[in-house]
Amino acid sequence: MGTNAVHSLEHMHDPETISYLSQADAAAIDELLMGPLGFSVDQLMELAGLSVATSIAEVYKPNDYSRVLIICGPGNNGGDGLVVTRHLYHFGYTPFVCYPKRTNKPLYHGLVTQLEALAVPFLSSEELPTELASNFDIVVDAMFGFSFHGTPRPPFDALIRRLAVPSGFTRENCGLPVIVSVDIPSGWHVEQGDIEGTGLRPDMLVSLTAPKLCARKLTASHHFLGGRFVPPELAKKYSLQLPKYPGTAMCVRIGKPLSVDVASLRENYVSPELLEENVKDDPIKQFQEWFDDAVAAGLREPNAMALATADKDGHPSERMVLLKGFDEHGFVWYTNYESRKAHEIHENPYASLLFFWEALHRQVRIEGSVEKVPEEESDEYFHSRPRGSQIGALVSNQSSVIPGRHVLHHAYNELQAKYIDGKLIPRPKHWGGYRLKPNTVEFWQGQMSRLHDRLLYSRTEINGKQKWKIERLAP
């Protein structure tokens, strides 16, 4: 986990470390963003809408919460909702829009045109079903944001009432789906919360720029911050204490993550069927096809694989390593020959590899015998690595006990100085590659209701020749 993610985790567990804005400060910050700081309304709207959509996707996966109704107000909050709709569509959801009070402003007209080009249905408030949960899995409340004053007018007053959960009831009792509010729950006072008694109690709030004071009254299961556009100058001026966004994320959780029942966590996979007549006769060729799919899908480290080994007494161990090559001879990775896995392979030269490509609902499990690759092959790969990685291989006596990181840093700095002139770094004899020659290869494709596809390739001899036999296994 990167440094930013670690800092984000530290802050997200304690909402008291976060800054909360008054209505006046929120308005002043918006003016600065769209004035001296050079942002346009459409830029901020795009970033806000993307933040909300990614927050929804963090918690409510499209396989289980596909149907989303976005209720858009007449102002910028409604514009955010239109942008949310576009992103949710491209994330794999099926969105519907209720946009009762349209404006002729070019920005909003363009957003509507974009959604019409995607064939997103627009519903009037009168067309909404009596029980929203019967038609929708999520309702996004994008009616009114922090700049709204006064009492909501028709039809928004009635729409807010339709999302209300009276005291002592649950949204399920009221026939309501999950409710996600954008920036503030519509009808709430920006600073004092639900003083009008609207009864709107969202399951998720996505605060934008910084949380508003009313968010302190929140009882939602999920509170996210979005709008990753606050410059340091602005944060300093208003003494904003905001959690750092992890990695490239457009949203970050505020408060403790919801405790969950581990037994209830599950995905209902929806995938094309994996049929015998559609796969390659050779598992290496089939693996190449699936590996290419994983790369094309933009998966991070698609070559990451779990390597399982066992010692002579059958005691197993497992770790993640990186695949560095494969062909008809097998699958190759590189490591320290004095590590635990190396000792276990020496005692028991059999292993198992597992690739898991979650986004594609796919696994590949490979079992077979293991041998070292030729030294010249290890030399060639070693010298193709970044120089820092080459020095790291010399420094680390893998799996041995050391007194602290300072030992590694000291040895690394010494070797870095030694080879500073760019001369060849020799491959250490205790470092090199292994090749697993597969005896069996199983391809797994996740399917609905746990009726997964499993095709097993195994070596068999036919007429004195080695062939691959393909069999279907029960899920």
Can you give keywords for this protein?
475 residues; alpha/beta; Rossmann fold; Pnp Oxidase, Chain A; 2 domains; nine-stranded antiparallel β-sheet; eight-stranded mixed β-sheet; 12 helices; 17 strands; 24% strand; disordered N terminus
Account of the protein in words:
The protein has 475 residues and is an alpha/beta fold. The chain folds into two domains: 3-257, Rossmann fold (3-Layer(aba) Sandwich); 276-383 and 427-472, Roll (Pnp Oxidase, Chain A), CATH 2.30.110. The protein contains twelve helices and 17 strands. The strands form two sheets. Strands 9, 10, 11, 12, 13, 14, 15, 16 and 17 form a nine-stranded antiparallel β-sheet that branches. Helix 11 (387-395) packs across helix 12. The longest helix has 19 residues, at 41-59. The radius of gyration is 28 Å and the shape is globular.
